[in-house]
Amino acid sequence: MKDTRTLQLRAQQAANTHSCPICRSDGVHLFMEVRQAPIYCNVLWETREAAMAAPRGDMTLGYCPTCSHVYNYAFDPSLMDYSQEYENSLHFSGRFQQYATDLTQRLIERYNLRGKDIVEIGCGKGDFLRQICRAGDNRGVGFDKSFVPDPVRDALDPNVRFVVDFFGAAYAHEPADLIVCRHVLEHIEDPRAFIADLRRVIGNHRCPVVYFEVPNALWTLRDLGIWDIIYEHCSYFSPASLVHLFETSGFETLDVREEFGGQFLAIEARPASGSVPLSAQMRLDFDCMMRDVTAFGDNYRAKVAHWRARLSALAEQRRRVVVWGAGSKGVTFLNVFHDQGAIEYVVDINPRKQGKYVAGSGQQVVEPAFLRSYQPEVVIVMNALYVDEIRQMLSALDVTATVESV
Ligand SMILES: [Zn+2]
Question: What is the DSSP secondary structure assignment for residue 106, as one 8-state letter?
Answer without folding.
Answer: H
